[in-house]
Fold these 3 entries.
Entry 1:
Amino acid sequence: MARTLRISNALHARLQAAARARGFDSVEQLLDVWQSEEVELRRREEAVHQIDALREHLFTVYGEMADSTALVCEDRAR
């Protein structure tokens, strides 16, 4: 369903210029991309939040884990 949105001529001109600068044919394409990018950003932020929560949980359960770099190098040298 199509909707009509009233915006100022100045805002529409800025949106058109932004759309053209990004290679889009219309303001609608620009807004679609902006909305998609916003959704993707929220998804990534949630993933980072989950990683941080897991890291905190593992630290609480196991404490600080030793650096395994030396062990990996030693293993590779064999």
Note: The mean pLDDT is 94.
Entry 2:
Amino acid sequence: MAAQMTAVAVGWQVYSIHHRAFDLGLIGLLEFAPLPLLALPAGHVADRLPRRRIMGAAFVLEGAVAGALLAVTLSGARELWPFLLLAFAGGVAVALGTPAARALPPMLVPPELLAGALATRSVAFQIATTSGPALGGVLFAIRPELVYAIGAGLLLASVGCAVALREPRSVERLHAAEPPPGLASVLGGIRFIRSAPILLGAISLDLFAVLFGGAVALLPLYAQSILHVGPTGFGVLRSAPSVGALLAALWLTRRPTDRRIGRTLLLVIGLFGASMVVFGLSRWFAVSAVALAVSGLVDMFSVNIRSTTVAVATPDALRGRVLAVEMVFISASNELGAFESGAAAALVGAVPAVVAGGAFTIALAIASFRLFPQLASVDRFEDVRPAAG
């Protein structure tokens, strides 16, 4: 919730400085920049040290970033460079904490319940990401400083939640038995993913779909210059994908996807691209919000399939490193995708950029039946059989 609230405020403030779409893309680029450098070491650390402590440390850093954004806002928020610097710091926090955070659920839940458990986790996550942007927009309209002050408080509470977690003792013994760190150990996640073509195909497909098809980074531009809504309307637009994702997550908790998962993945990626085309062409606030909600709904099915596949296929001793590699792919699609969206909008305009990206995603989904035949033919999660080692 804190991350979503602050994203709304940062997006609105950054676009208001120069009214340039490229500036929105720079925020995404700076958020992504630390990941290629830190992801693999962070994944290795997550496989050697207590994961709850790593999570807590990352939340402390995110809280410091929120405090610094509060200070920037109190000083007038008239310069772009502080937002770029703090976007980089926020990216460092995400790079350090995400592998540990995402490696925790599979070791706490029996394998036969994992798909439903990950969907349940997504429900909690989507409740926060649904309410966070809307709350952030309302608070920003009242007073911008409130967004960052409350966000910092929520991150402090997150530190307490992380510290309160208890990891199984078997995992502690596993950490203690790990060999001394080395380059081969750090690169273990890359080797494992390369040995599982289906896993590599699923992650790669998601990367390119969101990299070129996503439009979240351009929402401040759409809100101000195309749909002509204020901060509250912008918050609603920012929340719309999470509303759709929440509905999908609730469905998946009761009826997890367990058949034809390969074809389902390709189908929902195509639908994601179609929803982006509708959003890009829309001039009506309600239609735009519904299109974004649909994009979040189908994307949740994609995320659930990919997350469950990774969790089922990966042994706990490698989970942090594998998830670190996956995190680079995901963040490349999100943060680097934000830069791509901003740069494309600056070159050809926001509407052509969004529509072209959605059309490319549809074409990618269709082509994937030939590009990733093994992935398209997967029926159950049990069919994923990575090579040993």
Note: Residues 72 and 82 are 7 Å apart (CA to CA).
Entry 3:
Amino acid sequence: MQIARFLHTEGKAPLFGVIKDDVIQEISDPFGEIKEGRGIFPREKVKLLSPTLPSKIVAVGLNYRHHAQELKQQIPENPIIFLKPSTAALSPHDFILLPSSSNQVDYEGELAVIIKKKAHKVKVSQVEEYILGYTCFNDVTARDLQKKDGQWTRAKSFDTFAPFGPWIETEIEPGNLNIRTYVNGHKKQDSNTRELLFPVPVLISFISEVMTLLPGDVIATGTPEGVGPLHPGDIVEVEIENIGILRNPVKGE
């Protein structure tokens, strides 16, 4: 099932819906018991939004061996986690804004997990019941500021630096998915989630030991090798097998 959050041409408030071929069937809040609503909307008459409004976005650094090596970083013994603010969230097809304070803003294509219900100190064996589904994520990063600051908050937190979508796929296994990133149609990243150093169940359990996860929160699981810069006029696409394509244009601030 593909769950989208969207605006339709005649509505003022965002709705949730299930994608069914060329239409979207309205549903209730997907973080409770899902019920079908009355609305059925042609897909060409809706604007897809970021699939949730997270209280927080928890991201994972250096979770692919070859990405750690390309950044000349040591392979971590435990997951390296950091936060991106909810204000960084960006909808599919909206512009990534390159801040004037940075001279190098990179794309980082990633698999993201959407949390279904409140999660605190969850065991690895119980993680699945806390997951609503999966989506594509772009951990946009001001690489020069990351190196300058020595910690990652500023570099990861600009408005528009957390595009995710286009929808939530609820019926896939996350352990063996091809993940690719394209810039202007040229393939830049090409890997598979089986290369994750810390797989999804381990990540959710580890993070929930640190902080309580709430419905709609996003866990970005890390990027493979091949990161690189974005420029005004670029179109960046993150494609994940059995999920879809997250596409965003880029422009200067």
Note: The chain has a mean pLDDT of 95.
